[in-house]
Amino acid sequence: MAKPFGELALIDEIRAAQASGMRRAGKRTRAKRASSLVLGIGDDCAILRPPRGYEVLVTTDFSLEGRHFLRNLHPPESIGHRVLARGLSDLAAMGAKPLAAFLSLALPGDLVADRKDRAWLARFFAGFNDLARAHSVPLAGGDSSESPSDHVLADIVLLGSAPAGRALRRSGARAGDAIYVTGSLGGSAAELTSLQQRAKLSTVRLVPRQIDPSPRPHLYPQPRLAVGQALLRRRLATACIDLSDGLSTDLAHLCRESHLGAEIHAETLPIHPLAAPTQDPLALALNGGEDYELLFSAPPAARIPRAIAGVRITRIGALTRRKVITLIDTHGQRKPLIAAGWEHFNRQG
Amino acid sequence: MAKPFGELALIDEIRAAQASGMRRAGKRTRAKRASSLVLGIGDDCAILRPPRGYEVLVTTDFSLEGRHFLRNLHPPESIGHRVLARGLSDLAAMGAKPLAAFLSLALPGDLVADRKDRAWLARFFAGFNDLARAHSVPLAGGDSSESPSDHVLADIVLLGSAPAGRALRRSGARAGDAIYVTGSLGGSAAELTSLQQRAKLSTVRLVPRQIDPSPRPHLYPQPRLAVGQALLRRRLATACIDLSDGLSTDLAHLCRESHLGAEIHAETLPIHPLAAPTQDPLALALNGGEDYELLFSAPPAARIPRAIAGVRITRIGALTRRKVITLIDTHGQRKPLIAAGWEHFNRQG
User: Fold this and answer.
1) Do residues A170 and B43 touch, judged by C-beta distance below 8 A?
2) Closest residue in chain A to residue B92, using alpha carbons only
3) The 3-state secondary structure of A139-153, one letter per residue
4) Digit-coded pLDDT (tens) for A325-349
5) Any idea what the CATH number is for the domain that residue B105 is in?
6) What are the chain B neighbours of A86 within 8 Å (beta carbons)?
7) Residues B73 and B155 in one domain
8) Cα radius of gyration (chain B)
9) How confident is the model at residue A271 (pLDDT cuts 50, 70, 90)?
10) Which range of residues forms the domain containing residue A199?
């Protein structure tokens, strides 16, 4: 019996996307990549040869329609970009260099039934491959299936490498260390809110293909790989985590793993330009999530540059021996900072 | 806003399962494992240190309810076992040793809503951990989410290691090589058919917890890791693939990657005892799928043992320069062997 949606067809599609991505990535990175990726798509496993003296880092992240994105809100390029960005950001948080990506993708039957609908898949891979090329990460394998529901289901796996024993962890911070964030906060939640408001006013396709992703923190977040690698190389950070759930939640993770508390000064938080004019910029910066910036700690006397790899670095507080996380507002008032990073889409979403 | 199904809760569950699995695995394997798995669940990435001179193999496989299993047919222990077996079998096919597993798991809200329903998850992990312990593979990370539908969604990632340049591939076979299979064929499809027939006769829970999985080729398939590793170590095989889709389809993959054809002798096929009494044992052996045996090639003069690691090895045909796959029946009649491995469950399944 023929499969209603041949896995082979999708695998061929992915293989073509990978080949195209690797061709366009140019000669500069090919030699380096070839030495890590020995065998890509087409066998039972991919084969990687990590550089000698390096460890292998692994992260996996679901991107499920209705939980992490909505097909009537996110353009396909954004979905492809965001699927990969989630994994790359985890590598960034540990200072790793990407070795290879693996994508498991399940599509509803209607998305592959005819030529026209396959455009969705092509646009998904356009977004995926643009980001993959920007960071020279080959798509080395994965799995494909017809989705059992009408949801697009993706799971991304990223492998990276870091010098043995040097990867940045959540657990390395010490009491008294200063706390820093990269870039600015709240932009992703602000852009999402504005997309949702526009969606209510319109039933036509919402968002055109984005050429310059930098001002679109929700649709095209930029994982901070260069910053993470610089922090590792220059031994600047004692601990690091990426801001996926939101500052309030991710800071709690870092504190928990380091057995510490923290004090954050609200007035120092770098607010994203899209968040600044909203009703409650501070709430977006603290709890909005999906900014994919890095949060890291460094000894209080360490000289931390004002920018790393072109990304602004801002000191926002300090770690404390007392295991409580406190927000100090502009009037000097102290209150507990509750972990309140949110999920964007409920089950009906 | 609190998450309706906290990811943290599931991560804690997985972490506990892992800790328990590693404890019970005993001291014998701990030193070896500790040297590979530097950091497990609880940071942005896991960290692995593959042995020097080894390559890293990676495979990912979806197990989606309604496509790969049915909750009203498969007991939770079987689902957990099968999720992991899919990935381990891919490592077996390349002769690799498992380094670590990563599990992304999305559950419908009702499965985690109350204590009683969480029993499903505990039984899932019991099945998963039993197989993980049997092959000393630690669960090193993953992701969790609430499912956007009423389907359980799993994606398994397996990392393994093999001596550099030595992994068994689909592409190494030469014309004239003999073709072998491990174990027996058609058992998984036969057991599945019998489970489905029993399900029609009954509305109560179907299948009790299975203690000795060996005679249950569908519910508890045994990935042939020891055989694959022996083939690699003893340099016996020129090419290898696992039988997940079915002999007719997987042989076509091996032939395609090796640029060859093949002749298979029907009378030589080792039929599983569960398949033998069915209406068409040959069809189950050729197209049933999910037997998770190995199919490999070796030079015609190579001395292949009758059993490896306690698993029977059977010669079933030979590879040919002519790129056609032919089945020769008991009367010497030749006909093309069409790749017809099937999917077990349709979208309504």
Assistant:
1) yes
2) A44
3) EEEEEEEECCCCCCE
4) 999 998 999 999 999 876 545 433 2
5) 3.30.1330.10
6) none
7) yes
8) 21
9) very high
10) 178-205+217-336
Structure-token pair, residue A82: 């965001």
Nearest to A45 among B4, B45, B90 (CB): B90
Task: Report the run of H or E that residue A10 belongs to, with start and end.
Answer: helix A7-24
How many domains would you assign to chain A?
A: 2
Residues B184 and B331 in one domain: yes
The tens digit of pLDDT for each residue in B184-239 reads: 999 999 999 999 888 776 554 444 444 333 589 999 999 999 999 999 999 999 99
Identify the closest residue of chain B to A65 by CA–CA distance: B148
In a domain, A346, yes or no: no
Mutate which of A41, A155, A227 to disrupt the B interface (most B C-beta within 10 Å)? Answer: A155
Q: Are A55 and B46 an interchain contact pair (Cβ–Cβ within 8 Å)?
A: no
- Contact: B43, A147; criterion CB under 8 Å: no
How many angstroms separate the CA atoms of B137 and B29, rounded? 10
Is A18 exposed, middle or buried, given 0-12, 13-18 or 19+ CB atoms closer than 10 A? buried
Whether residue A45 and residue B64 make contact (CB cut-off 8 A), yes or no, is: no
The C-alpha atoms of residue B272 and residue B197 are separated, in whole angstroms, by 19
| Global pTM value | 0.89
Of A132, A124, A129, which Cα lies nearest the Cα of A107? A124
The per-residue b/e assignment along B121-132, b for 16 or more CB within 10 angstroms, e otherwise, is bebbbbbbbbbb
Calpha distance A244→A287 (Å, rounded): 10
Q: Which helix (H) or strand (E) holds B12?
A: helix B7-24
**Same-domain pairing of B41 and B138:** yes
Chain A residues within an 8 Å CB radius of B241: 44
| B201, B130: one domain | no
Q: Please give the residue of chain B at the shortest CA–CA distance from A241.
A: B44
Residues A155 and A274 in one domain: no
Burial class from Cβ neighbours inside 10 Å (0-12, 13-18, 19+) for residue A210 reads middle
Per-residue pLDDT tens over the stretch A12-60: 666 666 555 545 444 444 444 445 888 888 888 999 998 889 999 999 9
Q: Could you give the CA distance from residue A208 to residue A134 in angstroms, rounded to a whole number?
A: 21
> What is d(CA A135, CA A217) in angstroms, rounded to the nearest whole number?
18
Residues B301-317 pLDDT 10s: 999 999 999 999 999 99
* Nearest-by-Cβ selection for A142 from B60, B147, B148: B60
Query: Do A56 and B44 make contact, defined as CB atoms within 8 angstroms?
Result: no
Given pLDDT bands bounded at 50, 70 and 90, which one contains residue B1?
very low
Map residue B295 onto helix, strand or coil: strand
Interface test with B, best of A44, A71, A161 (most B CBs within 10 A): A44
A6/chain B closest Cα distance in angstroms: 10
Which two three-digit tokens encode residue B230?
């022996």
Do B157 and B182 lie in a common domain?
no
Helix (H) or strand (E) holding B308: strand B307-308
Q: Check B96 against A45: CB less than 8 A apart.
A: yes
Q: For chain B, what percentages of helix, strand and coil (3-state, to nearest 5) are there?
A: 30, 25, 40
Query: pLDDT (tens digit, 9 = 90+) per residue, A138-190?
Result: 999 999 888 999 999 999 999 999 999 999 999 999 999 999 999 999 999 99
The CA distance from A316 to A320, in Å, is 13
Inter-chain touch B141–A60, beta carbons under 8 Å? yes
- Which residue from A minimizes the CA distance to B342? A1
